[in-house]
Amino acid sequence: MEMNATLLLVCGGLVGCGVYLLLERSLTRVLAGLVLIGNGINVGFLVAGGGAGSSAFYGSADQADMADPLPQALVLTAIVITLGTVAFLLAMAHRSWQLYGADDVQDDVEDAAIRRLADDDATSVGHSATTQGQEEDDPEEDDR
Amino acid sequence: MTSALVPLPVVLPLLGSGAALMMSRWPRAQRMVSVVVLVAVVVVAALLLVAADREGPQVVWLGGWRELGIALVADRLAALMLLVSSIVTLAVLVYSIGQGVTDNDREAPVSIYHPTFLTLVAGVSNAFLAGDLFNLFVSFEILLFASYVLLTLGGTPARVRAGTIYVIVNVVSSALFLIAIATAYAALGTLNLAQIGERVPGLDGTTALVLQLLLLTTFSIKAAVFPLSLWLPDSYPTAPAPVTAVFAGLLTKVGVYAIIRTQTLLFPDRPLTDLLLWAALATMLIGILGAIAQSDIKRLLSFTLVSHIGYMVFGIGLATQAGMSGAVFYVAHHITVQTALFLVVGLIENLGGSSALLRLGGLASLYPLIGVLFFVPAMNLAGIPPLSGFIGKVGLLEAGIADGSWLAWLLVAGGTVTSLLTLYAVAKAWALAFWRTPREAHEMALQLGGQRDGDEEHGTAEVSAGGHVHLGATVFAAGDVKEASRAADTEVSDDSEDDLFQLLEREGRRPRPPWAMVLPTAGLVGVSLAITVFAGPLYGFTDRAAEDLVTRTPYLQAVQEAGR
Questions:
Q1: Domain with A73 in it
Q2: Which residue, among B160, B176, B177, B424, would best test binding to A if mutated, counting the most A CBs under 10 Å from its CB?
Q3: Domain tally for chain B?
Q4: Is A81 within 8 Å of chain B by CB?
């Protein structure tokens, strides 16, 4: 199969940068990372579709010269889905900013509780009050 | 022409979703539409089940684009999953309507709830029917988007926090899935599952391995297989009770279903079974150990959910007909039981004001019916004979013993231990929430709550010289009390929420059980008992389904013939 090295490099670079951003705490950066990964994968689909060719309208060109239309259709679908995801995540980041004044990804409540137990060298029993009332938890406290 | 029915479980909920959205101003009409649509889906799924069993897999190439377009396939496995999931979603929908009527919607904007719920159902049905890798991806996205909305309903702080993690994890898994799809297309030139299954043997070993690992990782995130399960217990419990119930019942099982397809249809010759078996063992044990540590019933059940996914992966990892049959039976059993349990927890929250074990007590005497509704599925989950959980586990363990390798024996031992620990976990929930009296619960909470409330009378609970807190027959280590009191000081300092005892004292009478929520729960518990009663025929059916899966020919032939 014919491969385009430039496209491959672009794909790898985009996904790599995306993964780097994904490891950040700020939801906005995570979002940017996800967009980069999404675009990188879309470029990857173009590689998967084989070499370039003329547009795939019936009768417009010889069938052997046509580009493979299926990956293009897949990429279109993927773009639409990424758009929806980005919109939703932006809304979540905004809501998070409204609530906390920051859009950081919060720690797991349970992790925080277990970490405190470990600090105290204490054991946990099912009835311990560590997780009750998640709704009232002060998120700032869980985060630190 | 039953194959014409195949698209209906997807199309009906989608149309219903649109209709429900248009009727957002008329809640009654909206509810009517949702219920009618889901009842119709149950009927269609039942018809498909019969057709798939009698005539083999039902296949439709959408739009008549044979061999090129998108295929929908309802074989025995897909039809069974479809039927079980549609029954469960119907029960949950009726329950949430009951809850809406009872609670007068504190947090849930109902006009959005019904359309989103129907979209979720469409996504789940499409995932079961998809005969195409990309269609499977799209159905995952449909159900995930609906689940994002449902999980963050109302945008409360806890839900936004939990939702953030859930969304990011799932978007990453979707990205992995897309990479897998691109790889599959580049390597094989097709995305149709049957065609992939036929072409994979001609692929070189490394490419096939990469492809298989990519797909397994993706689906393991969805199915919450350890170590990719850590997102689940954190994100599920914050959602409204019916949402948690349907997520717990269905969404992880869609992942399990996709793993079954990958392992049987796509890669029958390169099984990676050892990897799956190890993952199953870790999932079972670590999940259930997490459950034991929990103090909230919702979190406890989320961890048992993770743990019991391990049983299904165990069956898949054995890669024998008996193992596969056990796994399929276990999926059907577990969807019903786990959903029923979460619905009961919703009832407990509604009546007791909390799902924290510390605040509950005496529910068995206050509400005997709720006690029964919790007890039966809880014992079923733990695998007490003669319930279906026992039958499913015996089937899996027998399959493991028949396999005979040391790893399979290790899994058999792990499965038994997990079953016992599950019994311990649910028995603890039962003892704390149902068995002790509300006064005992209140006094223990005071003890644990530390000396803040020291001037109040302390009743029967006392700290002995041996460093243990005695309360009736229950003994707790004093260290835990100390730690819990500190935790209670830091975390629930406002103490705005009363426990059940205080609630009862203040109200002067117990709240009445909301029948509109009790009845669907009872119905679902009834379904789980029906699975027990009809376990013989059902196991026969899953045996036939597993035979189809292992031999592959019925699926491949049906897709080919329909493509001509």
A1: 5-55+67-123
A2: B160
A3: 3
A4: yes
